[in-house]
């Protein structure tokens, strides 16, 4: 049995279409790239969560979610608890700049669409390059991804 956990992330695109992502290495998941975001606090909406997480993880306070890109679910262990995480992934555009992350050891990068598509390491959400290439259309529900 897995504990439900709700989370939200925000994909930031610069004017040339490069995406801002963090690179993480998790014992269970391995190396993967993901946009700023995290768990939704009690009483918080997904949109409020991404604005808070973006501020905490990058120091940026001027960006707002522009549209919902996708939703997806995945299982992993978070702080020792087996969870099924339900994620909302938003998109916004903003200037290309360096973050002031809460963790100075954070590994981040602006990735062009071509680099993202050929990255060779997983991204959260899966198929991120493909989803971004689709442009502004209806959000996609990826379902439970193993």
In a few lines, what is going on in this structure?
The protein is of the alpha+beta class.
Please write out the topology.
Layout: E1 3-13, E2 19-26, E3 30-34, E4 37-39, H1 46-58, E5 67-78, E6 81-93, E7 107-111, H2 113-117, H3 128-133, E8 140-144
Parallel strand pairs: 1-6, 5-8
Antiparallel strand pairs: 1-2, 1-4, 2-3, 2-7, 5-6
Give a structural overview.
- Its cofactor is Mg(2+).
- There is one protein chain.
- With 146 residues, the protein is an alpha+beta fold.
- 16% of the residues lie in helices and 42% in strands.
- It has helices at 46-58, 113-117, 128-133, and strands at residues 3-13, 19-26, 30-34, 37-39, 67-78, 81-93, 107-111, 140-144.
Characterize the biggest β-sheet: 8 strands, mixed
The structural domain count equals 1
| Large-scale geometry | globular
Q: Any guess at the CATH architecture?
A: Alpha-Beta Complex
Mean pLDDT: 94
Number of H- or I-type helical stretches: 3
CATH class: Alpha Beta
How far apart are the termini?
Answer: 15 Å
Strand tally is 8
Percentage of residues in DSSP E strands? 35-45%
CATH topology-level fold name: Nucleoside Triphosphate Pyrophosphohydrolase
How would you name the CATH homologous superfamily?
A: Nucleoside Triphosphate Pyrophosphohydrolase
Look at the helices and sheets and give the structural class. alpha+beta
The percentage helix is 10-25%
Low-confidence stretches: none
**Radius of gyration over all CA atoms, rounded:** 14 Å
SSE series = EEEEHEEEHHE
Protein name: NUDIX hydrolase
Pfam families: NUDIX
Cofactor: Mg(2+)
InterPro entries: Nudix_hydrolase, NUDIX_hydrolase-like_dom_sf, NUDIX_hydrolase_CS, NUDIX_hydrolase_dom
